[in-house]
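Incident log, support desk, overnight shift.

02:14 A customer reports that sequence design results differ from what the structure should imply. Their input is reproduced verbatim below. On-call engineer (initials T.W.) acknowledged and began investigating.
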């Protein structure tokens, strides 16, 4: 009887803590999504259910242009960051005879803890100096934002790849090498399928970081290259807008779909 009461108390405590924790996290998000269907222009005054602001959102050229710009920059930066991150993570994990290896590991992971405002300012000064010395880039725009996002996203991908390779049994690769398999075939046939879920996770993380970035993009952007966070922030400074709520709800839907996709991809790889 006493054991049953203890188990019930533990279950109640777990449910209570999970409810409180997730409420702090998801209640504001659910409130935002709910008010995105509000027919009233005053954001916090409910008038009735409507898709009015979603229709107006898709007619707002400024937001749509910023959205396309952000998607393009995020896709390209995530792709380049993933390629570079895989190379860095693989090199630091598999090549043990690199001189000053701990120093390179520190350099690879330092952007993870570096304040974004410092990173943005340093990149801005770098672009200005580079323009004076070699004339590139000629001006701030989408290219400078792309380079900046690749710079701070590489570290996140490299850490994910390092973590996966560190827990991976290297004896499988050594066995394949003993059987005469060339290193390139070992990587593509054995290592790559194992780290594929980590590569996908790294790409999605880099994509999300680029899509969400405001601070670094504010330093490195230029005319005609405003990303979605910059446009949304400029609108919110003037007051809450129902269109911003609708946009946030759509972004949340995209994030949820991406998370579900990663879950099923990881699950299918585990079964294999």
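02:41 Re-run completed on a clean worker. Output:
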């Amino acid at each position: 009887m006493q054991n049953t009461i203890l188990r019930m108390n533990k279950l109640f405590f777990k449910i209570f803590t999970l409810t409180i924790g997730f409420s702090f996290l998801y209640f504001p998000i659910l409130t935002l999504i709910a008010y995105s269907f509000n027919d009233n222009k005053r954001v916090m005054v409910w008038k009735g259910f409507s898709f009015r602001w979603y229709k107006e959102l898709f007619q707002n050229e400024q937001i749509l242009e910023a959205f396309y710009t952000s998607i393009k920059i995020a896709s390209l930066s995530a792709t380049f960051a993933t390629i570079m991150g895989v190379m860095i993570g693989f090199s630091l994990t598999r090549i043990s005879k690199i001189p000053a290896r701990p120093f390179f590991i520190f350099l690879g992971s330092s952007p993870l803890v570096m304040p974004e405002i410092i990173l943005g300012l340093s990149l801005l000064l770098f672009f200005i100096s580079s323009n004076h010395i070699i004339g590139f880039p000629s001006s701030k725009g989408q290219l400078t934002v792309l380079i900046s996002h690749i710079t701070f996203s590489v570290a996140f991908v490299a850490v994910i790849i390092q973590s996966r390779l560190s827990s991976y049994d290297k004896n499988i690769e050594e066995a394949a090498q003993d059987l005469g398999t060339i290193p390139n075939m070992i990587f593509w046939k054995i290592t790559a399928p194992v780290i594929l879920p980590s590569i996908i996770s790294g790409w999605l993380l880099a994509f999300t970081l680029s899509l969400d970035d405001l601070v670094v993009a504010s330093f490195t952007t230029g005319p005609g290259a405003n990303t979605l966070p910059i446009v949304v922030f400029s609108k919110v400074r003037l007051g809450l807008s129902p269109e911003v709520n609708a946009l946030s709800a759509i972004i949340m839907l995209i994030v949820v779909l991406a998370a579900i996709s990663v879950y099923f991809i990881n699950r299918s790889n585990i079964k294999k």
